[in-house]
Design goal:
40% of the residues lie in helices and 20% in strands. The chain has 327 residues and is of the alpha/beta class. The protein has two domains: 166 residues, 3-Layer(aba) Sandwich (Rossmann fold); 141 residues, Rossmann fold. Helix 1 runs parallel beside helix 8 and helix 4 runs parallel beside helix 6.
Length: 327
């Protein structure tokens, strides 16, 4: 079964609002797309359409939060993280207010809207802000848990969601982000694939192919980009020696960069310690218009590309032999 994660957000915030009368939702004239329109119908006195004025919307959210409310702000990632960065940093994060940013339509899978709407820089922007929690859930259950975590967390939170449907991997009501920061997807010993975002299906396919050719690769789902589960990253690095990161974001400043910083901080990088990190994501380029599936293939988010990258790192001498068997 598949779910649209922004619809999961729209449904879950209603349930939370039934329990907490301090929940307020703001939207930038995109409630139909961000799926907050149902909240507005059910709680009209706690929903505010701020129009196409994202900077003002964040400032309004800061004022509402300073008055004792927990405010969820919704828009496309490009408009929220990009256009309203100054207000997010100075009006919300600087004063550690309870404003939760739910950014939808992130990454190249936005599709036909093209580069101007495909935000590939938001993780880098948000994780650099002091005190900002950054979450990139992989499926419906993680999204529910992320929204509930954000509502209970004291301080700003940024939750990144995509546009398209994604596979439901985790059973309902099995995840609590108060106690779990990462999830062992599959066990392995020769390398570790770390991913954030809606890649459960792709990661499972990669694992199946690698297993058939005799490569035991550990796979870990890491929805918390900040704070990272550094203990798990260091454990995987020590036990497998090779880390491969996967994200629908620029490799500049994103999840992969955060993992590299963790390894460097733990002094595990370099030839002496034998730990290597390879990052899979969008290079130093913009997106382009196209169908989501075609764009994901064009930018290398395919089983073949990921398998070949892992093989080239683990057993480079076999890349040419194995590539001919991959479709």
């Amino acid at each position: 079964m598949k779910s649209m994660l922004r619809q999961v957000y729209g449904n879950e915030i209603i349930e939370i609002a039934k329990e907490n009368d301090k929940i307020v939702v703001l939207d930038g004239d995109l409630a139909t797309s961000t799926k907050t329109s149902s909240f507005g119908k059910m709680f009209p006195d706690r929903f505010f359409n701020c129009g196409i004025a994202e900077q003002n919307m964040v400032s309004v959210a800061a004022g509402l939060a300073a008055s004792g409310n927990t405010v969820f702000v919704s828009s496309f990632a490009m408009f929220l993280a990009g256009r309203a960065y100054d207000q997010i940093r100075n009006n919300v994060a600087y004063t550690n207010l309870n404003v939760k940013f739910v950014a939808t339509h992130a990454g190249i899978s936005v599709g036909e809207d093209g580069a101007t709407h495909q935000c590939l820089e938001d993780i880098a922007l948000m994780r650099a802000i002091p005190g900002m929690v950054v979450l990139v859930p992989s499926d419906a259950e993680q999204t529910r848990a992320a929204i509930r975590y954000a509502a209970s967390h004291d301080g700003p939170v940024y939750i990144r969601l995509g546009r398209v449907e994604t596979l439901d991997y985790y059973p309902e009501k099995t995840i609590n982000f108060l106690s779990n920061k990462s999830f062992l997807f599959r066990e392995g010993s020769m390398a570790t694939l770390l991913f954030c975002g809606p890649f459960c299906s792709l990661a499972a396919e990669v694992s199946d192919v690698l297993e058939k050719i005799g490569l035991s690769v550990r796979i870990v789902d890491m929805p918390f980009v900040k704070p990272l589960d550094e203990r798990e990253i260091i454990r995987c690095a020590a036990e497998t020696g090779l880390l491969v990161t996967l994200e629908e974001h620029s490799i500049v400043g994103g999840f992969g960069s955060a993992v590299c910083e963790c390894i460097c901080g733990a002094k595990l990088s370099g030839r002496r310690n034998g730990v290597e990190v390879f990052r899979i994501g969008v290079g130093d380029i913009f997106g382009k218009s196209g169908k989501p599936k075609e764009l994901m293939s064009l930018y290398g988010f395919t089983v073949k590309n990921i398998v070949l990258q892992i093989i080239s790192a683990c057993m480079p001498e076999y890349v040419n032999d194995i590539s001919q068997f991959l479709t």
